[in-house]
Recover the amino acids of this structure.
C-alpha cells in the first residue's frame, strides 16, 4: 500500500512515521509540511535518522498526492482534513484523519464545539475507535480517528454502558495528559518552568472531547448521556490516565461489572484488563498501542470508578490510525503494533 502522511512534522505525524517504518505492507511515498518544505524529515526529527531518506513536500498539489497514494493519514490541526477529503472525493484514495473533522455524526455538534464551519458535512466517514467500530472501519472511505482523551475514556466506560450498568447521565471523567498531547508548537503553558513541578486543570466544562465521549457512550448504551469532562496537564511527555466515575443502577453487583468488561474485551489484543481493584499507569503502556483498564466498586457511594491508561501518541493517535489502516486493508490488526511498552 502506498501511504502518505500530511503534517509529518507534527508529533502525531512523526509518530506515524516511526510506526509505519515497521509495517511490511506500507510504503510511505509522500510526507508533507508547509513550513519546512524541501527539508529532510530527520533534520526535524533526528530520532528518525537512517529510517527515512525523504524530503518534505508541500501539500499544495494535493490531487497529485492523492492520485499517487492508496491511503492518506492526516496529522493536521482540525479544519484542514475536510478540505483535503473534499478535494479527493472522486479518487479511490482512502483517508484516516487524526484530527476531529470526521469524528461527529452530526456536524452541527462539531461546529458548535470547534467554532468552524464544516465544509464537507455529507462526507462518507466513520468513527475510528477500532475496538468498538471495527465493522464500519473495514470499508470506510474516510476514518475519523478517535481523539486521545476520548479513546481512554470511551474504552473505560463502554462495557458499563453496553451492559446498562450505569446511569449515563451521572458520568464524570477526570483525565490527565502529558504535554505531547498539545502538539509541537511552543506555547507558554507548555514552557518548562510553567509545566515542570506543576499540575493544573484546563478547559473545565468546555473541552472539545466532551461531545465526542457523549456521542459514543450514548450510541453504545442507546441512552441519553451527559458527561462532566475535566482534562489536566501533567509534567510528563507522553501518556493519559482517565479516571471515570458513574452511579451504578439498582442491583448492580461487582460480579456483573467484572462480567461486562470480560465480555466486551475478552478477545481484544490491545485492551489489557487489570481487573477489579487494578491500577493502570501511563508508564506501563508507554510507546505501545495498549489501553490498560481496571475498575473499582465503591459500595458506600454505589459508584463505579473505571481507570484507563494509554499513550496519547500511540493508542490515542498514530497507533490507533495504523490499527484502523490494518482493519481497512484486511491485514492482521496487530501489524507493526505488537510491541511491548517501553518501561521504565
Ligand atoms: N498530539 C496528540 O497527542 C494527538 C494529536 N491528535 C491530532 O493530530 C493532529 C496533529 O496534532 P499534533 O501532531 O499534536 O500537532 P503539531 O502541532 O505537533 O503538528 C501540526 C502539524 O500540522 C501542520 N500544520 C499546522 N498548521 C498548518 C496549516 N495551517 N496548514 C497546513 N499544515 C499545518 C504542521 O506542519 P508545518 O508547520 O511543518 O507546516 C504540523 O505538521 C491534530 O488534529 C490533533 O488534534 C490526535 C490525537 C492525539
Ligand atoms: C495536553 C493537551 O493539550 N491535549 C490536547 C488534546 C487534544 C488533541 O491532541 O487532539 P485530539 O482531539 O485530536 O485528540 C487538548 O486538550 O486540546
Amino acid at each position: 500500500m502506498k501511504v502518505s502522511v500530511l503534517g509529518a512534522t507534527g508529533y502525531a505525524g512523526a509518530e506515524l512515521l516511526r510506526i509505519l517504518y515497521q509495517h511490511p505492507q506500507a510504503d510511505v511515498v509522500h510526507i508533507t509540511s508547509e513550513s519546512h518544505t524541501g527539508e529532510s524529515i530527520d533534520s526535524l526529527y533526528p530520532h528518525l535518522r537512517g529510517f527515512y531518506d525523504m524530503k518534505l513536500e508541500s501539500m499544495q498539489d494535493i490531487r497529485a498526492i492523492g492520485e499517487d497514494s492508496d491511503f492518506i493519514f492526516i496529522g493536521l490541526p482540525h479544519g484542514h482534513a475536510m478540505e483535503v477529503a473534499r478535494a479527493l472525493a472522486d479518487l479511490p484514495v482512502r483517508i484516516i484523519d487524526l484530527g476531529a473533522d470526521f469524528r461527529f455524526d452530526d456536524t452541527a455538534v462539531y461546529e458548535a464545539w470547534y467554532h468552524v464551519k464544516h465544509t464537507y458535512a455529507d462526507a462518507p466517514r466513520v468513527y475510528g475507535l477500532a475496538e468498538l467500530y471495527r465493522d464500519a472501519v473495514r470499508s470506510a472511505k474516510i476514518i475519523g480517528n478517535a481523539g486521545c482523551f476520548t479513546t481512554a475514556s470511551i474504552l473505560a466506560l463502554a462495557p458499563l454502558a453496553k451492559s446498562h450498568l450505569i446511569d449515563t447521565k451521572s458520568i464524570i471523567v477526570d483525565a490527565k495528559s502529558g504535554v505531547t498531547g498539545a502538539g509541537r508548537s511552543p506555547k507558554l503553558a507548555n514552557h518548562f518552568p510553567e509545566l515542570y513541578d506543576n499540575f493544573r486543570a484546563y478547559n473545565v466544562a468546555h473541552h472539545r472531547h466532551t461531545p465526542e465521549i457523549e456521542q459514543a457512550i450514548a450510541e453504545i448504551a442507546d441512552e441519553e448521556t451527559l458527561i462532566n469532562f475535566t482534562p489536566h496537564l501533567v509534567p510528563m511527555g507522553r501518556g493519559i490516565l482517565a479516571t471515570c466515575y458513574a452511579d451504578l443502577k439498582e442491583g448492580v453487583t461487582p460480579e456483573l461489572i467484572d462480567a461486562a468488561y470480560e465480555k466486551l474485551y475478552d478477545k481484544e489484543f490491545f485492551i489489557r484488563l487489570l481487573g477489579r481493584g487494578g491500577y493502570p499507569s501511563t508508564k506501563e503502556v508507554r510507546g505501545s498501542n495498549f489501553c490498560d483498564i481496571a475498575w473499582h466498586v465503591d459500595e458506600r457511594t454505589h459508584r463505579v470508578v473505571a481507570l484507563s491508561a494509554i499513550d496519547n501518541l500511540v493508542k490515542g493517535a498514530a497507533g490507533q490510525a495504523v490499527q484502523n489502516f490494518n482493519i481497512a486493508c484486511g491485514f492482521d490488526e496487530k501489524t507493526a503494533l505488537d510491541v511491548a511498552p517501553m518501561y521504565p
Observations:
- The chain has two domains: 2-123, 149-312.
- The pocket of N-acetyl-L-glutamyl 5-phosphate (ligand 2) is lined by residues 99-100, 147-148, 177, 179, 181-182, 231, 233 (CB under 6 Å).
